[in-house]
Amino acid sequence: MSAAKSSEEQAQGYFPDWKLKTSGVIMPEERLPWGQTIVAGLQHGVAMSGGTIIAPLLMGFDPNVALLFSGIGTLIFFAVVAGRVPSYLGSSFAFIAVVIAATGYTGYGPNPNLSVALGGIIGAGVLYGAIALIVMWSGVGWVERLMPPVVTGAVVAAIGLNLAPVAVKSVSASSFDTWIGLLTVLIIGVIAVAAPGMWRRLPIILGAIAGYLLYWLLANGLGLGKPIDFTQLSAAPLIGLPNFTTPSFRVDAIVLIAPVAIILVAENLGHIKAIGAMTGRSLDGYLGRAFLGDSLATIASACGGGTGVTTYAENIGVMAATKVYSTLLFAVAALVSILLGFSPKFGALILSIPGPVIGGLSIVLFGLIAAMAGRIWVENKVDFANPANLITVAVALTAGAGDLTLKFGAFTIGGIGTATFGAIILYQILTSSLAHRAE
């Protein structure tokens, strides 16, 4: 961590004072009035909930356990970064392919080999932590040389574009679904631009509620679409313990899953850079801590049966839309997630949100992620007249958007990983001394 950051902490205490501010851009060390802070924190809970619950379902994990540990992991991260980096840690999609490969999961019901996957995820967390300690010891310089703004911007854009087909598919089952998704997008946009007062800061949660009610009215009320099924919601108990699972350790699973740590590093770096661009201040002094907080959160999650976690791009999208970066929002969201992790009824409620509404939310949030890349490039004055920059970005965007998948034996790298590693390696080759001598 930089000396400037250390001095700041010594002057203000380990955590910020969070001074009250009621209008304009709310910076990480500032806060809204408590009522608005709680509501805005709930909005971040809504933003992360879809991915945090869907990802474990795709791997056969218990979604309530994942929700619980996303909250615990976020508080771990919050403590490690001294409450100065606004981020929520939710279930990472980077683990899905390797977990399925390591466990032979068929895609239906609980994963019978869940404990094996948990051991591999812990291995990824340990590797991630080792990288974090190196960054904290040696500084962020080598990371920046390896992944300069042109590369991190490309990774951020690739993440948003890679997720885009998921959003589009969610609104494409029928023309009714498409219109619901587009109307949800429109509602979010109108709220973000024209809503009065504090309501303008809540476009995602209000858009989700409005989209849900609109779908219920048109589908359940008028029969224009598939009705929302409230059977599971009615049957689910209000309070109950999640299904905790202890890990087991197999070398083959660890070798297969642990390298996902590299993808988490790139994701986290891209997210931290995006937050830095949005707030107009560098958070590089906390990058090593951010890595360490994420790694410890991943290990803690896997020890109890949860997924690997990562800083969530969906919540970065919310910050981009609201201009509220107060870290207290994420503490609120984390505490609520912990409480809701013990409520099967809440999990059932989230799962009852219609796919087209989730798709509409995703179109906005994933698009904002991709758009953040442009801000990174502009803020850092990336020169696209330079062919090395241009080709690096072009290849990364295509690999990410097209979900280019590479297989090395049993190890598979999906589009985000391919775009990440491809951008890093290609940029280094194109800017190497050999390339300079060719000029």
Explain the layout of strands and helices.
Blueprint: H1 3-12, E1 19-20, E2 30-31, H2 34-59, H3 63-80, E3 89-91, H4 96-103, H5 114-138, H6 141-146, H7 149-170, H8 175-194, H9 203-221, H10 231-235, H11 251-257, H12 260-279, H13 287-304, E4 309-311, H14 313-322, H15 328-340, H16 344-351, H17 355-379, H18 387-401, E5 406-408, E6 411-413, H19 415-430, H20 433-437
Parallel strand pairs: 1-2
Antiparallel strand pairs: 3-4, 5-6
Helix pairs in contact: 2-3, 2-9, 2-15, 3-13, 3-15, 4-5, 4-11, 5-11, 5-12, 5-13, 7-12, 7-17, 7-18, 7-19, 8-9, 8-17, 9-17, 12-13, 12-14, 12-17, 14-17, 18-19
Q: What's a concise summary of this model?
A:
The chain has 439 residues and is mainly α.
Please give a structural write-up.
The chain contains 20 helices and six strands. The protein is mainly alpha-helical. It has one domain. The strands form three sheets. The protein has a two-stranded parallel sheet with strand order 1-2. It has a two-stranded antiparallel ribbon with strand order 3-4. The protein has a two-stranded antiparallel ribbon with strand order 5-6. Keywords: Cell membrane, Membrane, Transmembrane, Transmembrane helix, Transport.
Helical segment count? 20
Largest pleated sheet? 2 strands, parallel
Shape: globular
Q: How many strand units?
A: 6
Radius of gyration: 21 Å
Unreliable segments (pLDDT under 50, ≥5 consecutive)? none
Count structural domains.
Answer: 1
Class by alpha and beta content: mainly alpha
* N-C termini distance: 38 Å
Strand percentage? under 5%
Give the % helix.
Answer: 55-70%
Strand order of the largest sheet: 1-2
Report the average pLDDT across residues: 85
How do the SSEs run, as a string of H and E? HEEHHEHHHHHHHHHHEHHHHHEEHH
